[in-house]
C-alpha cells in the first residue's frame, strides 16, 4: 500500500518528511491536544492579564477553534466551512519571527489565519506553522504512536497528556502548568493591589475624561444622524481607539449618508470582521476599509430578508419542539454571522422534520434552548436553557428535554432571582464606594458577581471613590483608568 512513495526516496529527506508524515496516520483527540500544547501555552488568556483586549480576542478565538476541532472528530464528518481566526501569540525564545508578521512592543504579535483542513493532523500542523512554532515534537509524537500495536493505540483515552517534568528539561520546552502556577502564586490581595495601583488609575482616569466626553458626543451624534438603536464594541478597546473608529464611521456617513441610513433601527458593533451578527447587529470589522463597510451597508436589505427567514425558521423549530424558544445568547456562544447561524438552524430543522418527534403543542412554552455545533449530547445549563447539539439524536433529545423540563424551569426561576439580587448588590456597592461606574465582563456569571459584591461590601476601600470598576477574571489597570479586579479576589491568595 506504500509503493507509491518509492519514487520520492531520491529526494532530500527534509523535503519528503512532511509528505510521509502526513500520510502516516491520523491523530487522536488526545494527541492533537498534546501536539498543540506549545500553541496553547503561547496564546493562553491567563498570560494576558495586563492586556484585556488581546485576552478577549484569544478567548473568543479559542472557543471557535475548539468547536472546529470537535467537529473534525464527529462521526460522519465531511467538510467544514473555512474558519478565520486571530490570535495574539506571546513571544518566546522558541517563537522566532519570519520577518513578515507585526511584532508589538508588549511581547506578543497578532497572527491571522484561516482553517480549511479536513483532519486533526493537518489542522495541528497548519496552526503551529501559522504561529511560527516548531512541529518537530508532532513528528516525533506521530512516529512513536505509529509504532505501537493497534490495540494499544485504540485504548488510548482522549484526555490531555500530562508530561513528566523531565520531558521539559530534556526537550527545552516550557511547562505551561508551571508558568500557570507561577501566575497564581503571584496573585496579590485586593487591598494591597489597590494600594499599589490606585494612584496610577486615578491619574489615567483623569487624563481620559476629555476623550470620554468626546466619545459620548460622537456616539450621540452618529446614533441620531443614522437613527441607530445603539453603538457598541465587542472588545475592550481604549477610549482613543473607539473615538477613532467613530470618526471613521462619521467620515463615511458624510460621503454615503443615504447608504448608511439602511442601518436605521440597528445596533452597530465594532468587532473583528464585517457582516451581520446572529442576533441582527451590524458588525463593522475594525481592520476593514471604508469600501468594505459601504458594501455591507448596501447589502443590509438582503440581510434583513435573511433575518426574517431566520426568525421564521426559529418559530418552526419552536413549533416542532412543543413551544420551546430558540435563542442565541451572545455571552455564552461563539460569535456567529447571520449566515452561519441560519445554516445551523436549517440543518437542525431538517433533521427534526425527518424524525417528527411527538411533543404536545405548547407543552414546553417558557423554556429556552440554544443550538451548538461543538457538542455531542444535549445538556441543561445552570441558567435554565438547554444546550442542544445540531446533530443530536432526535429520540435522545425528546427523552432529555422531557425529563429535564421541570429542572429547567426551576433554574430559570433561580436565574431571575439571582439577577434581581445581583442588581441590588451592584447598586449598593456603587453607592457605598461612590463609584462613577460599576460593571462586569460578560463572562462573569450572576453567581460569581453576587459572591464578589457581598464580599466587597464588607470592605473599606477608599481608593474606589469616583473610579470605574470592572469585575473580571484578573487584576488590571486599563489604559483609560478603569480598574479590573477578579470576581474571586480575597485578602489572601485568589481562589482558583
From TrEMBL:
GO cellular component terms attached to this protein's record: mitochondrion
Coiled-coil region list: 404-431
Keyword terms: Coiled coil
InterPro entries for this protein: DUF4460, DUF4461, TCAIM
Segments forming domain DUF4460: 24-133
Domain of life according to the entry: Eukaryota
Domain DUF4461 as annotated: residue spans: 188-490
Protein's name according to its UniProt entry: T cell activation inhibitor, mitochondrial
Organism, as annotated: Moschus moschiferus (Siberian musk deer)
Gene: TCAIM
Amino acid at each position: 500500500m506504500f509503493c507509491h512513495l518509492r519514487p520520492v526516496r531520491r529526494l532530500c529527506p527534509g523535503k519528503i518528511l512532511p509528505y510521509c508524515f502526513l500520510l502516516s496516520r491520523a491523530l487522536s483527540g488526545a494527541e492533537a491536544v498534546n501536539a498543540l500544547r506549545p500553541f496553547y501555552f503561547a496564546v493562553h488568556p491567563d498570560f494576558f492579564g495586563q492586556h484585556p483586549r488581546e485576552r478577549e480576542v484569544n478567548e473568543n478565538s479559542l472557543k471557535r477553534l475548539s468547536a472546529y476541532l470537535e467537529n473534525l472528530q464527529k462521526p460522519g464528518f465531511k467538510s467544514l466551512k473555512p474558519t478565520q481566526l486571530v490570535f495574539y501569540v506571546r513571544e518566546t525564545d522558541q517563537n522566532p519571527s519570519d520577518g513578515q508578521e507585526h511584532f508589538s512592543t508588549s511581547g506578543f504579535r497578532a497572527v491571522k489565519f484561516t482553517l480549511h483542513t479536513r483532519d486533526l493532523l493537518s489542522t495541528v500542523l497548519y496552526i503551529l506553522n501559522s504561529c511560527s512554532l516548531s512541529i518537530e515534537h508532532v513528528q516525533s509524537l506521530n512516529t512513536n504512536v505509529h509504532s505501537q500495536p493497534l490495540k494499544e493505540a485504540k485504548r488510548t483515552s482522549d484526555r490531555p497528556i500530562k508530561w513528566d517534568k523531565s520531558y521539559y528539561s530534556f526537550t527545552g520546552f516550557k511547562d505551561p502548568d508551571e508558568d500557570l502556577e507561577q501566575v497564581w502564586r503571584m496573585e496579590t490581595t485586593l487591598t494591597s493591589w489597590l494600594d499599589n495601583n490606585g494612584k496610577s488609575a486615578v491619574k489615567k482616569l483623569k487624563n481620559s475624561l476629555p476623550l470620554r466626553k468626546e466619545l459620548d458626543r460622537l456616539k450621540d451624534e452618529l446614533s441620531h444622524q443614522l437613527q441607530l438603536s445603539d453603538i457598541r464594541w465587542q472588545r475592550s478597546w481604549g477610549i482613543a481607539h473607539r473615538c477613532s473608529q467613530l470618526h471613521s464611521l462619521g467620515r463615511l456617513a458624510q460621503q454615503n449618508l443615504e447608504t448608511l441610513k439602511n442601518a436605521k433601527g440597528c445596533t452597530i458593533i465594532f468587532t473583528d470582521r464585517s457582516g451581520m451578527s446572529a442576533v441582527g447587529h451590524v458588525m463593522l470589522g475594525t481592520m476593514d476599509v471604508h469600501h468594505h463597510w459601504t458594501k455591507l451597508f448596501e447589502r443590509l436589505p438582503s440581510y434583513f430578508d435573511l433575518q426574517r427567514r431566520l426568525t421564521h425558521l426559529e418559530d418552526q423549530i419552536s413549533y416542532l419542539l412543543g413551544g420551546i424558544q430558540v435563542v442565541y445568547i451572545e455571552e455564552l456562544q461563539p460569535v456567529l454571522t447571520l449566515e452561519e447561524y441560519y445554516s445551523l438552524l436549517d440543518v437542525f430543522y431538517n433533521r427534526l422534520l425527518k424524525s417528527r418527534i411527538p411533543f404536545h403543542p405548547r407543552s414546553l412554552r417558557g423554556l429556552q434552548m440554544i443550538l451548538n455545533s461543538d457538542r455531542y449530547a444535549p445538556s441543561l445549563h445552570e441558567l435554565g436553557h438547554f444546550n442542544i447539539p445540531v446533530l443530536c439524536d432526535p429520540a435522545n433529545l425528546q427523552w432529555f428535554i422531557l425529563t429535564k423540563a421541570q429542572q429547567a424551569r426551576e433554574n430559570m426561576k433561580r436565574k431571575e432571582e439571582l439577577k434581581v439580587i445581583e442588581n441590588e448588590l451592584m447598586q449598593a456597592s456603587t453607592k457605598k464606594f461612590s463609584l462613577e461606574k460599576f460593571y462586569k465582563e460578560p463572562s462573569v456569571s450572576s453567581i460569581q458577581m453576587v459572591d464578589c459584591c457581598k464580599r466587597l461590601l464588607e470592605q473599606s476601600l477608599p481608593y474606589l471613590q469616583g473610579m470605574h470598576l470592572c469585575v473580571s477574571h484578573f487584576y488590571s489597570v486599563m489604559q483609560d483608568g478603569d480598574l479590573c479586579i477578579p470576581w474571586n479576589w480575597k485578602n489572601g491568595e485568589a481562589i482558583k
